[in-house]
């Protein structure tokens, strides 16, 4: 069924309207969204995307509806993975928390523009050259291989995502400040107009958006060749990504097997594209230029495989021994930071509540295998110091009614080195969580 110009026009107006609303009512005034705000708007955007699928069902039939939902789920998973790299870039540029929304919205808009260009280039290439399916399939299989290699070899990133060639060039050619002036891209310094780091971080995110489009667009073309479905599934997968960032910030590193799941999905779609390319074959050196009679994978099976892999990936990340170990370590670290940040006149109930939870968590440390302790450890000394100080301060408070022992003088780098973190591979597709190990000793909250 051919998509009418009216349907295209209404869809574009809806998407532009959502972006405008997001900017004028959420991003224009710098602030840090609350968890409640992020959760509500994440749900709203997901709901809009799902309802839009019903509109496609009404206007275009069940086939395109299934292709839309398959494409949306795949692109949403890839978009969540992109947040790993956004986290690295934003953290390395030390963007103020209240200004991060503007950076993220720019990244979403730029990603939408870049992917739209790739969509129409890809659609035109497919219409003109059927062998492009071979190319798309090879791109996805290669990307899947890189993800698997990154997980197996545990290789470190060879380059800083936030210090790419464009950023380095911009710093050399254009004068740039070392500080932010709220959310301004330019500011005045010594009577001259200069760039702020805000512009550089947007350049860095824009550059990574182009790289992400190189594998996300072939992935969705593996599920549908209808440009309208490709565009809408991609657009709605990007909508709400800003809110999702603030909702799951700090939880992304718990999806420890996300790269494995995405690699399997990309590998599956890559093979599906190769089979379709053989079915439509026109290359003279393959079967004398005639189509090859192969089994093609339908959209129903594709949707089932994609959803199944994602569900298994999330469950394995959260409930596997390594996932449980990471949760225990991360929760212990978070609660220790909370306790050490308490003012001297903090209520006794609050101190007791936090210290009790920490004691319960540290009692679970002996259950963590040595293998996972080695994988998740980064700085045992700093982590042990934090937990032991909490225990010592609590004992002191229970004995004297006040806390005199000072908290460790940890700066943000110290806290980061003690915490499990996500290390993104050069493609931004793999994360390696690292943290400390420990166990309870007698009646104390000792971590070793």
Automatic annotation (TrEMBL):
InterPro entries, sorted: Integral_membrane_TerC (IPR005496), Integral_membrane_TerC_rswitch (IPR022369)
Membrane topology label: Multi-pass membrane protein
Recorded family membership: Belongs to the TerC family.
Protein source organism: Kocuria atrinae
Protein name listed in UniProt: TerC/Alx family metal homeostasis membrane protein
Keyword Plastid annotated: no
Region (Disordered): 392-448
Transmembrane segment boundaries: 6-27, 39-59, 79-96, 103-125, 131-148, 198-221, 227-248, 255-277, 297-319
Superkingdom assignment: Bacteria
Major localization class: membrane
Keyword Membrane: yes
UniProt keyword terms in alphabetical order: Membrane, Transmembrane, Transmembrane helix
Subcellular location field: Membrane
């Amino acid at each position: 069924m051919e998509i009418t110009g009216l349907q295209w026009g209404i869809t574009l107006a809806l998407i532009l309207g959502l972006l405008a609303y997001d900017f004028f009512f959420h991003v224009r005034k710098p602030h840090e969204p609350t968890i409640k705000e992020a959760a509500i708007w994440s749900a709203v955007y997901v709901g809009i995307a799902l309802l839009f699928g019903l509109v496609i069902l009404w206007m275009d039939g069940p086939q395109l509806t299934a292709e839309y939902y398959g494409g949306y789920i795949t692109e949403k998973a890839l978009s969540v993975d992109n947040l790993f790299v956004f986290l690295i870039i934003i953290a390395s540029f030390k963007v103020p928390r209240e200004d991060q929304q503007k950076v993220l919205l720019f990244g979403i808009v730029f990603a939408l523009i870049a992917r739209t260009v790739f969509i129409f280039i890809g659609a035109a290439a497919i219409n003109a050259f059927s062998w492009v399916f071979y190319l798309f399939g090879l791109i996805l299989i290669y990307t899947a291989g890189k993800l698997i290699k990154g997980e197996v070899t545990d290789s470190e990133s060879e380059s800083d995502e936030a210090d790419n060639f464009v950023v380095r060039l911009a710093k050399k050619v254009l004068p740039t400040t070392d500080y932010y002036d709220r959310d301004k891209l330019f500011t005045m310094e010594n009577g001259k107009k200069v760039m702020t780091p805000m512009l550089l971080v947007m350049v860095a995110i824009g550059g990574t958006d182009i790289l992400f489009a190189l594998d996300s667009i072939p992935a969705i073309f593996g599920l549908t060749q209808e440009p309208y479905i490709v565009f809408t599934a991609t657009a709605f997968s990007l909508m709400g990504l800003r809110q999702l960032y603030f909702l799951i910030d700090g939880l992304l590193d718990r999806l420890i097997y996300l790269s494995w799941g995405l690699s399997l999905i990309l590998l599956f779609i890559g093979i599906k594209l190769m089979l379709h390319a053989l079915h439509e074959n026109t290359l003279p050196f393959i079967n004398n230029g005639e189509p090859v009679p192969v089994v093609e994978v339908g959209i129903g099976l594709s949707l089932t495989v994609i959803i199944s892999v994602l569900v298994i990936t999330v469950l394995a990340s959260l409930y596997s021994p390594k996932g449980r170990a990471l949760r225990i370590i991360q929760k212990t670290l978070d609660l220790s930071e909370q306790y050490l940040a308490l003012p001297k006149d903090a209520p006794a109930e609050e101190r007791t509540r936090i210290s009790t939870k920490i004691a319960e968590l540290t009692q679970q440390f002996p259950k963590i295998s040595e293998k996972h302790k080695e994988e998740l450890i980064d700085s045992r000394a700093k982590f042990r110091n934090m937990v032991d100080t909490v225990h010592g301060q609590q004992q002191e408070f229970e004995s004297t009614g006040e806390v005199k022992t000072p908290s460790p003088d940890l700066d943000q780098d110290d806290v980061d080195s003690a915490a499990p973190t996500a290390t993104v591979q050069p493609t931004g597709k793999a994360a390696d969580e690292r943290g400390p190990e420990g166990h309870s000793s007698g009646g104390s909250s000792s971590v070793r």
